[in-house]
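Q: Second attempt. The first request was missing the SMILES, so the protein and pyridoxal-5'-phosphate are both included now.
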Amino acid sequence: MKQQTYARYLWSEYQCSGEGAMTDFLSRHDGQLYFGDTVNLNELVERYGTPLEVVYCPQITTQIRRMQAWASQARQQTHYDGRFLYAYATKANFAAETVQTALAAGAHYETSAATDVEIAGHLWQRGTLPDDRLICCNGSKETAYLEAIQKIRLDGCTNIVPVVDDLHELQVLSACPAPLQMGVRERAAGNRDGRHPGNNRFGLTASEIDTMVEHLAETSHQLVLYHAMIGSQVEDQDHFLATLGDSIRAYCQLRQRVPSLRYFNFGGGMPTSGYRLDFQFDYAGFLTRLMTEIKRTCQQYNVPMPDLIGEFGRYTVATHRLYLLEVGSTKAGQQGEPDWYLVNGSLMVSMPDMLLVDDQEFVILPLDHWDQPVQPVRLAGRRTCDSDDVYPALNRPPLLLPAVGSGMVVAVCGIGAYQQMLSGRGGAHHCLTPEPRRLIIKEVAGRTILHTTPPQDQTTIMQLLGYQPQPTATPVRIRSLHRRRRKKAS
Ligand SMILES: *Cc1c(COP(=O)(O)O)cnc(C)c1O
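A: Got both inputs this time. The predicted holo structure:
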């Protein structure tokens, strides 16, 4: 049997040709891999070595602009009267460079925590978060969160919208001396499909919503927003729409009684292309069908069409970051098992969802050697001693990668959402795995600006753990001895 090359394998499996666009954030030209069709990853490896984290902020701008364009197309097509508001769910990635890029692209802000409101307040004071943007505050709210909301409102930010998650929050917020625009989260949406059991703890039941409406009538506060979130990475369009249907009806019924209601917020769930090369989702089609459905239901109940809000977490940021890791050594697998490619990092620290989410995948691509035969392998993190530091997990099929071994560099994509927050960016990691050099690429006034932060050093890691080392600032650099050959087009 003729041995299959990596290029042929990608073609037969994913119809990726190895020349031109591969996904909506990756492309390949003359044998070199590009991020956002702009940043040559092979060149970055030459210049900075590995391991390297690449942050390509313009991808966030692209994601937001695309969605806004699809929404305006859908509004025109369906003659939808309400506006479409794109909010960034910051819990997907709180990094300053990430949040600021999303705001610059026009995003509204969705918070999940007290400190998140502090950050929003700080950005609002500085004008980075303009006055016309909403700040929707979700999640269960302890005292500090409720106080942060009231503080920013009393500072003059009128667009802060606490989304009430239980009646106790309503009691506390009602005492705010300045009038608040409030939202309510529908509890029924959380696990209507039976697939998201943990999600049904959020929000109010229908009878609690009635209580809230009666209570607010006695105050100067208003109910303006109805929140219904059904899940995350929802790739089945029919299911997404069918599950939201009951929430749209509930909105309309409530709107008949509460004329101040004007936002329907479907929360998160919009899927990202970051996890699979064969991902497909018709975003424009989805928005068109959603607006059609809302419009139809509103007409049925004789209420005006609401402004539609989506809170985009994964969709906004999963694709704007990747890691470049290098195979430093290989180890033969046991009898009948694939070989191990040992990389200069930790997979479980880089993408903890591989352990937390059943069957979570990430796109992993070699930078070179596409003309070489493929071989089934598993990646293992060399900077931990953990038997779970393996991708793909042992109950999943191995990866097919060029049979090159040592010296091969792979791009680990789709890690921009949740992964760094879960693993604790800037912290002391499993087996003291140091964070790699970070290269942040931004576009400011049409110019591309590069900024790098050094790898985490040993002194920092020891200090984080309470040791008082002499500040030697020795960078943790376990560079490969292998010299990379510069490989031109293949
Ligand atoms: C996490 C979360 C989001 C973002 O979800 P994604 O699926 O990542 O887009 C949006 N809204 C709320 C209330 C959330 O908790």
